[in-house]
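new request in #modeling-help
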Amino acid sequence: MIRKNIGTILIFVLCLFIGAGFMIQQRVSGGQMLYVSPKAITDIKTTIDSEEKSLEETRLLVEETRNRLTEYEQSEGQSPESEEALRANLEKDVLRYGMYAGAHDLEGPGVVIRIDDGTRDLFEGEDLNNLLVHDVDILLVINDLKRNGAEAISVNGERLIDTSAVICSGYTVEINNTRYARPFIIRAIGDGARMASSLIGPGGYGTSLKSWGVLFEIELSDQVFVPAYRQAIPYRYMEKAEEVEE
Amino acid sequence: MKKSSGILVIGLLALFIGLILAIQIRTNAGSDQGGLVPIGKLKGYEAQLKQVQDEKAEVVQELLDLEKRLADIEKEKAQEDTFVNGLVSDLEKYRMWAGVLDVQGPGILVTIKDPVMDQYQEDYSVITNNFDLLLGLVNRLKEAGAEAISINEQRISANTEISLAGSNININGTATAPPYIVKAIGNPQTLEGAITLRGGIVYTMKMKYNLVVDTETKENMVIGRYTGVVAFRYAKPVDAETQAVVQP
């Protein structure tokens, strides 16, 4: 009789422990996810790396600007050397901002991407749209390139500037007010390995496009040419904001 | 007979507990190679990222201050030297094209708020998880002739990305959160018409995603400059005539 009771008590205590164990487990996690996918970790690591690099670059720029300031202030712009330095620095800045504005042809390492409509046969009842390239596809690919540090991008030879839209209009895509049909060739200057691995890695947009049946090819290149923006930039509505005196 | 069945039950139980323990240990130990990573690890990286970003914001602010002082000196110089004057006005033109200048003009202001959620979903942001809607909105505004656009004071420059990073949308590498306020300078009527047409982007936001979207035309508003760093590590300018790469 007693022996039997001991067995029951033992099982009861054991059950108590297991139950408590489950409760503790749940409490610790607070009902949230305890685990995340490894991609989230690689993503954040890449972001940290690129942020650190850009922090380093910003520090260099601060250093350079500070040197220039002291140079100007010490000589008070009287000596011919400082005049020369000021001009040279200004020319450097004009080039740098001109490059960013899309006013110069650029060349450098990067990627060349080709996107085209899929050619495979449709499944029974499948929507043809699955195989066609849409403007949102181009937009998302471009956005991903920018996220991974692209310095200059062109689509079918049209340099993308801050006001460039990519618009689907019927059978063609319109970029910088010019129409283009497929295939779409996107060239981007920057860290090619980083851009490519993001697009064709697991969960990358290139991988998704391929799985839908759209043709997506990416190729690293040491010499990618991105032309300047060749149209006029007339501003009809905006003007430089007046400086507010502090 | 009865006694042995009791032992059998305990035996089975012990087996299960052992199995559970083993699985638990395996998943913890093998987290690096395996499918899942403990969230604590991600939290650590997030803190590190935030620290780097804060530091960068500070350094960028310093750079902006220095650049302003420099610009003042250059402007002063430009008044006495025509060659320098030409350079300074070129610089200003390019800075305007590049979006690195505060600008003002008429345009529209679009406010996007998350739908009102019931209490179980309050941590979930619809607009954040559908950041391609913002991308689409910006694209439509550009098509309608917007000359300058910003989202939550982040100026859209040629290299601006809009991307999901963790639970935020990053724009120009800076984390942003709802509500999203999109400013665009251009013809107010054209801009508003282009996005509010039936079946257009605002319609989709409202009908499909239940977002709260307001558009408002403005006679004058200011859009701030792009505050990121303008520097090139990979791209080199090419001489337009000789086609040779220029070493700056």
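bot summary: Strands of chain A lie at 35-36, 105-116, 152-155, 158-159, 166-169, 172-175, 178-180, 184-189, 215-226, 239-240.
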